[in-house]
Write a structure and sequence with these properties.
- The protein is α+β, with helices and mostly antiparallel strands and 218 residues long.
- It folds into two domains: 51 residues; 145 residues, Quinohemoprotein amine dehydrogenase alpha subunit, domain 2 (Lipocalin).
- Helices cover 29% and strands 33% of the residues.
- The protein contains four helices and eight strands; from the N terminus they run H-H-H-E-E-E-E-E-E-E-E-H.
- An eight-stranded antiparallel beta barrel has the order 1-2-3-4-5-6-7-8.
- Strand 3 and strand 4 form a beta hairpin.
- Helix 1 packs antiparallel against helix 3.
- It is elongated.
- It starts with a helix and ends with a helix.
Length: 218
Amino acid sequence: MRRPGLVVRITAVGVGVVYAVVLHLVGIRLDQGVKQGLAYLPALAALLLIAWDLSVWRWPLVWKATSRPRLDGLWAVTLHPTSASRIPAEGNQGPIDGYMVVKQTYWTMALRQFTAEGSSVSRAFFWEGSHGTGIDWLTFIYDNMPRQRHQHRSGRHFGTCSLRPGNRRPTEIEGMYFTDRYTQGDLKMTFLGRDTDAGTFDEAARKHADLTAAQQAK
């Protein structure tokens, strides 16, 4: 499991150790001008790390050297529960339409899913190896909170979702999910745009409609 915090801590410690060793060496052999220049190394290293996390990894050519797909944006989602899912008779047997908002840096992910009956938020995630495809797969744990009027048949629950992008700039993604209320199924995501500001199902639906209208007007 590759946790962003662990990577950042290891990097910070590594930079600190290297910096301490370099200072020791320049105190013996190098002149004052070099010493002054080396004083900026920690700050420069930190800035480069932040720049990579927030932006550089997405740059043309640079992103091709990584296995990390770019998923940030607004997605239309369709859930297909399996027949083995324990869904109450009055519950939604599917397909279930919704939206996914993904916020992403190189080392962080935050995902929110909205349906007409409730919303989910990611609590933890990890990137899996590419399994020979050259593209990382994403697995995340989420917390789902149904709307109050649906909680008599669908209470709060936790689940795990696995997404398997086919390339570094996917427009469609397939995946699967499992929950602790004994439901499971497949899902399909269709990319709509890079907007990540939607905070409700209705707002995401409006943004979807606006994007569709703009495309039709071209």
